[in-house]
Amino acid sequence: MCFIEITTARNSTSTVIGSVYKPPRSETALFFDELKSILNNKIFLKNKNIIIMGDFNLNLLQYNSNSQILNFLSLMLSHGLYPAINKPSRITESTSTLIDNIFTNIDNLNCN
Q1: Sign of the alpha-carbon torsion through 85, 57, 94, 70
Q2: What is the band of 41 on the pLDDT scale with cuts at 50, 70, 90?
Q3: By the 8 A CB rule, do 100 and 56 touch?
Q4: Are 30 and 40 contacting, i.e. CB atoms less than 8 angstroms apart?
Q5: Which of 2, 29, 74, 86 has its CA 20 to 30 A from that of 51?
Q6: CA 14 to CA 12: how far, in whole Å?
């Protein structure tokens, strides 16, 4: 995970941009703990635009049947971060997944 904060001089708006990669076979609990620690950092507690994007390797299409995915989605939503993509981002002849996403608190950002 890598995060930067950009502040524009013209209107003093701050935006935090994060890039995340969770390896497919990595320990999901450790990923959650690290992400939760980052989201609880004071940099996220102020009024700022936040964009977190990446390959989370958690198929959001399975939130109804997988508690780890539901916990991840709940963590993001509890910090006011909503997925900008709600359709499969990887489609093959036999599968479709939504493991790559953008989470943001910016109302008009929609990537569908």
Answers
A1: negative
A2: confident
A3: yes
A4: no
A5: 29
A6: 6
